[in-house]
Amino acid sequence: MRNDVKTSPTKVAILDWQMSSLRSPVFDISYLVYSTGSGVELEKFDELLEFYYDSFSNFLKELGSNAEEIFPYSSLKEHWRKYALFGLLMAILCLPIILCDKEDVVAFEDLKEDQNFSEMITFNVKEKDLCYQRIKNIVSHYIKYTL
Prior knowledge:
The protein has 147 residues and is mostly helical.
């Protein structure tokens, strides 16, 4: 074995293929931004989108491609107007789950065969005001950046 070959892992990456498909990156970006961002992050949205695009461009450059030819920044912004609704709707569905306490979520292994599905997706969000404020922030942001 060569001395310069590492035998131990140096990085760990988690890949979630559950919702993967060939589509605009805005589906994933909008879901991430709206489900995790508070008003503070949404105020810096332009910076976040530019940072994403710079990283995307650099990655394509390393692969020997030109991002401005393949998918210019103007296309990313146009895709935001077209597809960010996905992230908005997913965030509205997921925020009660994200903001509830761990003990308030029904574990799948604890479900009974005759249990109503609505019981499984009903969450006790103790900080309802926070949840409503986050939803208000993302809806306002969506309106500002898509209409």
